[in-house]
Each structure stands twice: as structure tokens, then as C-alpha cells.
Amino acid sequence: MTDGAGDTARGAARPSRPARGPRFGLGAEGARSLSIAAVSTVVVFGLIGLVVVNAPGWPVFQQAFLNGPIFWESLPKVIGRFWVNVQMFLVAEVLILIFGLLLAVLRSLPGPVFFPVRLIATLYVDIFRALPGILVVFMLGLGIPALRLPGVPKDEFFWAVIVLTLLYSAYVSEVFRAGINSIHPSQAMAARSLGLTMTQSMRYVVVPQAVRRVVPPLLNDFIGLQKDTVLVSFIGVVEIFRETQILQAARFNFTPYLATALVFLAVTIPMARFTDWLIARDARKGGSGRRSASVSNALSRGGQAAP
Amino acid sequence: MTMQPALRIEGLWKSFGELDVLQGIDLEVAEHEVIALIGASGSGKSTLLRCINLLEPIDEGRIFIEGEEITAKGVNVDRIRRRVGIVFQSFNLFPHMRVLDNVTLGPRSVLTPPPAAAAPDAMRLLERFGLAEKANQLPDRLSGGQQQRVAIVRALAMQPDLLLLDEVTSALDPELVAEVLNVVRELAANGMTMLIATHEMGFARDIANRVCFLDAGRILEEGPPAQIFAEPREARTRQFLNRIIEAGRL
């Protein structure tokens, strides 16, 4: 019942990037390296540009993907639809945090009595991590409403949020579990020695420390979630990707995809940078913070969430 | 009413897999008595203390606290642990809580109803051990000696009948040892019943009513400190003490 994530998290203690070092491989040699970097960057990107612009299909490509008027026409529309993704994301995020933490705690319960609980939680996590996200979206998002169970909503938005929650809770529970495992057993022992019950020691001592440590890897998973909100377009939610497809079909032009891509870049890159900054800050702080960085590194190496 | 011993241990066995760590421990501790457990690393001192706090399940034997068998089936271990405080070598303070919250967590979450005066009581304890101005700080802002004193206060906040100290100075820089030992001296002077596993032989000699020498999971020899340190009967005890003297620790 013990598997990789926790052990890796406890074992690995080496941040992937030095906490206070050269950011893009520039540094000590100063100006000389800087000019070499500038020249080689210009050369590389120049060459790529030349190859693309001189490709035989370039004029057609330009017309199909880089159409200025269509771009400016679609951008506000896709941004408007992105609001649906943001709503799904925000609602699902709260549910995922609750459900993921619950799964992680259930899997961390010791003793033979809790074996069935651990088994169920483990099976759940294994299954949802093993399936491609798009499959889960189709099977649950179309399947369950088709049962027409009484009292179960048919609303696509509702099912989109449910599917995203079920899918991502499996990943997030692994992050939480790595965090829980990274808290030294002596902490729980100290709590129990005061007479706290197992639940109390989890609630007041282990989980609060674990959650603090896993904030950066959690943000990593939420970057994945942000992107994967487009998956539910396939069960009929008209969100940014569906809107893009509609625009593309109406004009028979692919430029709307470019607009949508830019929307995601604008939202996701700042969040990724913020996550990196948090990890670097924790690594600098050392002590308990260093362990946090090791958790996030172990996770981003091993189980990067990309269903 | 007959005076029950604060602690009675009968034929305690404990093994980790193949390794028999405790091999038939018998021990009786009277109320207000201070017992020093000495012996080499691996002789079973820490395991013995953990068994008394029920942090380790025992294999055989019985443990009584004031006449109540705590190793009996169906005993609520959480209730027992409230009466038996333990302080660890590595402090094990909760790093995400202020010192004051570290101290009040036990009373607040365990005692029913939660005492309204948990915080003032904790402040009084912190004050008594010179830690009042640290109450609002996080543990990692404190020196090792201060952290260990907080850990002792945390255990005292539960008003235990018995306090177990597991090499509480072994993780400290030498210049910080005295402040922790002074706290323990004060507790002994106030009549706290204590079992102290320690490598500080001078301290054990000063403070203990009785010294138990543990060797390979047994209490090989016990007696008043004057006798154990001056004229140990057992060859193993002499050998152990000679090594301590060679190291300049006695």
C-alpha cells in the first residue's frame, strides 16, 4: 500500500535549480556571457524564423492561422467565454482541495482496521490517475446523465465540475499524501504523547504542516486543471474551446485558436512563474522550507499532472 | 488507603522483529521519586520510556500507574497518556504553532471540558521557567535549550502524574545543557515523579534517588547513586562507568 510518491518526497532533498544562482545560465562572467547569449539567441530564433517564412506553405499558413481581422474579432469573444472556464475552475478547485485532502488522509490511516478504507482510496486514486482525462470526461460526463437517475441534474456545467473534481482529486490527493508523509513521525508521536487522539493529531499537527509544504506542487496541479477545463467542451459545455471551434467553423479559419492560445498563455505563465518563485523562496528559507521544495521537486519530476 | 507506587512494571518484554530490546524489566517507582536510567545507547532506555507512555505496544508484562494496569485490554490509551508526560531528545515541538499554542494544545484538545484558563495556566508555566517573553514566537526562533524547556512545559501543562525524560540534553550544545538540567532540578525539588534516561552522569548522581543501569534490555543493577557510581557490583556497570570517566563525562 506504500508506493513511490511519499518515499521519493522524503528521500530527495536536492532542489532542481540552485536557490540563488544564475537564472538562465548567465552570471559570474557577466557582460561577456550576456553578449554571447544575446548573439546566439538572435541567431537561433532568426534561423527558425527564416525556415518558417520560407516554407512552401507559409502564405497559406499565414492566411489560415494569422489572419489579423479575424484575430481581433475572435479575441473578445473567446475571452468572454473564458469566464465559463474560470467559473468551472474556481468551483472545482475548492471541491478538489476538500476531496483530495480527504482521500490523502484516508490513505494515511494506519492499522489493519482501516485496510478497506485504504484499499478503496488507493483504488480510486490508481484508477483516476491511470485513465486519460478525456475518457473520464466522456464516460462520466455523458454516461451518468444518460442513466437519468431521479434527482440527478442534467446540467452540463454541473457534470463538468464533477468530472474535473473526480479527475483532479486523484492527483491532488497524491500531493497531499506526499506532504503528510514528509512530516516526521516524531510530530505525530509528540501529539499522541500528550493524549491527542489520532484524528486530533492529524488535524492539529500533521495536516496543517503538510498543507503548508505542498502549496507549490498544488499550484502546479491547478495549472494543469486550468488547461484541462477545455476537456469538458466535449460534453457540450460552451466554454472557451467550444467557442473557438464555433468561430473556426464559421469562418473556416484557424486564427481563433491563436487567440485562445494567447488567453491561456496570459493566465498560465504568470501562475507557473509564481509557483517557481514560491519554490525558490522556500528553498532559500531552508529548514522546513527546504523539505517543501524537495516535495515539490519530487512531485514535478515523478508525477507531473497531465492526464 | 495503601500507598500505591506511582509506577510499577512487571516482566516487561519488547522486541522489534528479531531484536529483543527489553528482556524482562521489573521496576517500582514511588511517588516523588526520581529514577535515573543509565546505560549505553541501545540498552533499551528510550524504548522503556516509550512503553510506559504506551507509544510502543509491549509484547509481554504489565505496567501499572498508581495501581491501575495501563497495559490491560480495553484501556483508553489517550486517557493514560494524559497522565504520563514524555519529553524527547529532539524536542519535537510543533513548528507551525507559537510557543503558547504548543503548550495549550494538549489541555485544549484533550481535557473535557477544555479548561477556560488553558492560556493563563500555560503563561504561568512559561513564566516559571523564564520563557514568558517567548510565548508568541515560533519554536524555530528559540535556542535548543529554550525549545527543550518549552517541550518540558508542554508536558507539564497536562499536569501529569509521572514525567518521562528521554535524553533531554543529548541534542543540545554543551553550553545549553545547564539551563535544561536546572529545570529538571526544579521539578525534582517540587516533588515531580520522574524517570530520566540520561548520559549526564554528574546530573544523575545529584538528582536521582535511585539509579538503574540498563544493559541489553535488563536492569542489571540498581541502587542509590552513591553506591552505583562509587562501588558498582556488576562488572558491566564498572566497565560502562569507566568508559564514561575516560570520556571525561563524570
Describe the structure.
The complex is a heterodimer of chains A (307) and B (250). Chain A is an all-alpha fold and 307 residues long. Chain A has a single domain (66-302), classed as MetI-like (MetI-like fold). In chain A, 77% of the residues lie in helices and 0% in strands. Chain A has 13 helices and no strands. Chain A has helices spanning 4-11, 31-53, 58-65, 68-108, 115-130, 133-147, 156-182, 185-193, 198-213, 215-228, 240-251, 255-285, 288-302. In chain A, α1 packs across α7 (156-182) and α4 packs across α12. The longest helix of chain A has 41 residues, at 68-108. Chain A is flat and about 75 Å long. The two termini of chain A are 23 Å apart. Residues 1-19 and 287-307 of chain A have low confidence and may be disordered. Chain B has one domain: P-loop containing nucleotide triphosphate hydrolases (Rossmann fold). Helix content of chain B is 37%, strand content 24%. Chain B has helices at 45-52, 77-83, 99-110, 118-128, 144-156, 174-189, 201-207, 225-230, 235-246; strands at residues 7-16, 19-29, 34-38, 60-65, 68-69, 84-87, 162-166, 194-197, 210-215, 218-223. A six-stranded mixed beta sheet of chain B has the order 6-7-8-3-9-10, with helices on both faces. Chain B has a four-stranded antiparallel beta sheet with strand order 2-1-4-5, covered by helices on one side. The radius of gyration of chain B is 18 Å and the shape is globular. The mean pLDDT of chain B is 92. Chains A and B meet through α8 and α9 of A and α2 and α3 of B.
The low-confidence runs of chain A, each spanning 5 or more residues with pLDDT under 50, are 1-19, 287-307
- The outline of chain B comes out as globular
State the assembly state of the protein chains. Answer: heterodimer
The neighbouring-strand order within the major sheet of chain B is: 6-7-8-3-9-10
The parts of chain B where pLDDT drops under 50 for at least 5 residues are: none
Largest sheet of chain A: none
| The first-level CATH class name of chain A | Mainly Alpha
Please report the number of helical segments of chain A.
Answer: 13
Provide the CATH topology of chain A.
MetI-like fold
Could you give the count of β-strands of chain B?
10
Series of secondary-structure elements of chain B, N-terminal to C-terminal = EEEHEEHEHHHEHEHEEHH
Can you identify the CATH superfamily of chain B? P-loop containing nucleotide triphosphate hydrolases
Q: Tell me the count of domains of chain A.
A: 1
